[in-house]
Amino acid sequence: MTKKLLPDRRRGSTSFLLLEWVTAVVLVLVLAALGWMAGADLLPASWRLLSLEVEILVALTLLTAALLFVSVLALLHTRDRR
After folding, report:
1. How far apart are CA 26 and CA 36, in angstroms?
2. DSSP 45
3. Residue 6: its pLDDT value, please?
4. For the chain, which terminus, N or C, has the lower number of CB atoms within 10 Å?
5. What is each CA distance from 38 to 1, 7, 25, 49, in whole angstroms?
């Protein structure tokens, strides 16, 4: 009798918890980036960290990563736990 080695996708597994933490960090970074962009509009131009184009690219990259991570987590939550 051979058993198939399936990845451990249970909610308590280390990889699942790591994925949840990474997703949480990315979501917090999205909030921080959007907050910075909203607040930086009120500051003088010399206080900006990066150019406006780079800030937009960073925000879009973070939003895309957050969408992917949340989608993967939602998919894993809905899978059958055999």
Report:
1. 15
2. G
3. 45
4. N
5. 61, 42, 20, 13
Cβ atoms of residues 15 and 8 within 8 Å: yes
Residue 19: its pLDDT value, please?
Answer: 93
Asked if residues 69 and 26 have their Cβ atoms less than 8 Å apart, the reply is yes
pLDDT digits (tens, 9 = 90+) for 44-64: 888 887 888 998 899 999 999
Residue whose structure tokens are 């937009």: 56
The model's pTM: 0.74
SS (H, E, C) the chain: CCCCCCCCCCCCCHHHHHHHHHHHHHHHHHHHHHHHHHHHCCCCHHHCCCCHHHHHHHHHHHHHHHHHHHHHHHHHHHCCCC
The first and second tokens of residue 73, run together, are 């987590």
Query: What values do phi and psi take at 52, rounded to 5?
Result: -60, -40
